[in-house]
Every structure is written in structure tokens, then in C-alpha cells.
Design a protein that fits this description.
The chain is of the alpha/beta class and 253 residues long. Helix content is 45%, strand content 12%. Helix 5 (127-140) packs across helix 9 (218-244).
């Protein structure tokens, strides 16, 4: 992902006027778990503008230029936290943040102890499908429906296995964060977000009257359902190869 697409929630058009923050909603997730799609839906109904604000490859750099929270070459986390509250709190007072496993170190640099914080854990039951999707996104550069493909996808057992191991490590980090902090979290699955997004949003928001505002995401849901066809094919290939490949090293000494 090189250029930021129109419609990406990181863009300045989603900066809002200063509103007092009354609650922080933290979505704990991993790549290709459905969290970005969920965040887009929450933004569509103006519940919150959750995004990967701690993604350092691009997003933190973009926000640093716009919100001025750097001390030289170092991030002033206190100023960054205040900038998040100032620019990304929805009219209802909710500040939403999507945090992947590898971003947790930076997330913990920002102090939200003066506010009630609610946690949602987004998981994907089909971890092999998630690994295939992650590998596909890396190869094609298409991290969401907002971005065009800039390459082709070629299935490989080794690259799928590497993606699987990476996602498992990130998932373990999220689980460790939850357990170490004794957090109460609501769990939402990718499968539920795609098959029944209305129910998923109700779980997050407690709202009822919002369905009409989600109409523009119907095509994204259809696209996800179509992609499930290629995932099913390659999942079978991966499972077959995982039985025959001698990639597991054992040491009984």
C-alpha cells in the first residue's frame, strides 16, 4: 500500500471537531480478521471512527504531519493521545481504536486510565483462510476493497505456512495482553461480521436503527463471499500438503 485511497479512514476528511471523549472502544485484532471491515461499518453509522492509528508503516507518519505530535524524531505519546481524542472522537463521545497484535507496545504508551475503556476481540475461526488472505494481500497489495491490486496472487505452501505462523504469533500477543490485564472482552468473529454484520454491529454498539446506512457495504460483503471460493480451494491444497510436508522438526533430547 503506497498511496492512501479515497475513503480510507486515516484521511483528513474523517477528522472531527473537538468533542469530549467519554469512552474508548478498543478493537483487538490481527491482520485479515475482518476488523477493518467492522471499523468501516462503525464509521458509516457515525458510532466511532476506529482505525489502526498505531500502524507505523504509514498511518502514524501521516498523522504526525497533520497533528504535530513529534518531538524531533520521537513520538510524544502524550500529545498523540490528546490528538486522538481531539480529532477522532465521534459526536457520541466514543473514541475507537483498532489495534493489531504487533501494535500493542505502542498502544500501551498512551494513557487512557481516566476514561472507561471497552474491549472487543475480533478473531477469525478459519485461521488457514486468514493466512491465505494475508499472503494474498502481501502479494497483491490489496489490503482492503478500497485498494486496487498491483500484482497477482500465487499459492505457495511455504508462504502460507509463514503467514500462518506470523498470525499465530500476533494472536498469541493479543491473548497475552488480554490475560495479563485481566480484561473483559466481547468476542466477535470474522465469520459473524461477514455473514451477519447487523448482529455484529449490535453487539458492539447496542444500537438498532442503522441498517439503511450500511447499504454501500453490500458489495464488499458479496466480494468477501466470492473470495471464500478461492480460499476453500487453496485451503484444501494446504491441508493436503501439510500432511505430506516434512516441515515439523522434533528434538526429543
Amino acid at each position: 500500500m503506497n498511496e492512501i485511497a479515497d475513503g480510507d479512514l486515516i484521511n483528513a476528511e474523517y477528522d472531527v471537531q473537538s468533542v469530549d471523549t467519554t469512552e474508548v472502544l478498543v478493537i483487538l485484532s490481527t491482520e485479515r480478521s475482518g476488523s477493518t471491515f467492522l471499523c468501516e461499518q462503525l464509521a458509516a453509522i457515525d458510532y466511532c471512527y476506529a482505525h489502526e492509528y498505531f500502524q507505523h508503516y504509514q498511518y502514524l507518519q501521516i498523522l504526525a504531519r497533520r497533528w504535530d505530535f513529534m518531538d524531533g524524531e520521537r513520538i510524544n505519546w502524550k500529545r498523540f493521545g490528546q490528538a486522538l481524542r481531539t480529532h477522532r472522537t465521534a459526536p457520541n463521545g466514543v473514541l475507537g481504536i483498532n489495534v493489531h497484535g504487533y501494535q500493542l507496545d505502542w498502544f500501551q504508551q498512551v494513557d487512557f486510565t481516566d476514561l472507561p475503556v471497552r474491549y472487543i476481540h475480533v478473531v477469525r475461526n478459519d485461521i488457514i483462510g486468514q493466512a491465505l488472505s494475508y499472503d494474498r494481500a502481501i502479494q497483491t497489495g490489496q489490503w482492503s476493497s478500497l485498494y486496487p491490486k498491483n500484482g497477482d496472487y500465487y499459492y505457495s505452501f511455504d508462504s502460507t505456512l509463514n503467514a500462518l505462523h506470523y498470525l499465530q504469533r500476533q494472536s498469541a500477543r493479543v491473548s497475552a495482553f488480554i490475560n495479563a490485564n485481566n480484561l473483559n472482552v466481547d468476542v466477535i468473529t470474522f465469520e459473524n461480521i461477514i455473514s451477519d454484520p447487523i448482529s455484529a454491529i449490535r453487539t458492539v454498539t447496542g444500537l438498532d436503527d442503522f441498517e439503511e446506512r450500511l447499504s454501500k457495504y453490500r458489495s464488499s460483503m458479496i466480494r468477501q463471499q466470492k473470495q471464500s471460493q478461492y480460499r476453500e480451494i487453496f485451503s484444501k491444497s494446504y491441508l493436503k500438503e501439510s500432511i505430506t510436508q516434512s516441515y515439523i522438526k522434533r528434538d526429543y533430547r
